[in-house]
Amino acid sequence: MELEFAFELRVEVADIQFMGDTHRGNRRMIPITGGTFEGPAIKGKVQAGGYDWQVIRTDGVAELDARYVLQTDDGALITIVNQGLRRGPAEVMKRLSEGKEVDPSEYYFRSIPVFETADPKYVWLSQSVFVATGIRKPDKVLIQVYKIN
């Protein structure tokens, strides 16, 4: 297997909304407010209105489930469901949840994005498996997406 860089997402987010403890763990939601994406064969904007639904498990691992819409510069709409895990030492995770700048080498942030589109130009997104690595910034998430060949 080899990884091929597909594109980078720069997903802008609002403040965390804390629901509290549920039967699954500590639930929180992060509104997606916009952003951009760009790679060798694709470029566009992240539409506002999506959410990253997170559960912080009792072992401190964050289960991520982000769902939002991408719009390419040529008008194609692409849905993304990006599920993954973020974990690290408790004090690092606390700094992240407080919106502080944290070096990405201090935590693990990996995901599996799945795409859907009706545009033939971008059907390649639904014909392969992708993996991603993420960096949480105070007001955005940077996601490097790779196609598994």
UniProtKB/TrEMBL annotation:
InterPro entries: UPF0311 (IPR020915)
Matches recorded under Pfam families: DUF3237 (PF11578)
Alphabetical list of PANTHER family matching this protein: UPF0311 PROTEIN BLR7842 (PTHR37315)
HAMAP family: UPF0311
Family: Belongs to the UPF0311 family.
Protein name, as recorded: UPF0311 protein FHS57_001559
Originating species: Runella defluvii
